[in-house]
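Form 7-S
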Amino acid sequence: MSADQMLWHCNQVLSTSLDDIQVVPRRPPIPTAPEYKSEVSRDFEAERKRCLELIDRLTARKIEEDGWGPAVFGKISGREWSRLQAKHLDHHLKQFGA
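Output:
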């Protein structure tokens, strides 16, 4: 996965938490969902900008609110999405030395 593809991948997961996109529910074990796999090159700068916008939207929401999108493995709370996104972004940014 290249850096542009990683950002697109993270953006898909962020978009899922904000209920902008839906993914097909799956049972464990869960590899990366097809909705999150990028097989083509992406515009790095556009994905970086989109990522920052999605993070701003995520952090502007109250984690106690309803309306969070369901994860690939089912419904989770805003607090759980917050933790998942932090760990997910940290994991992928570390892959690229950030």
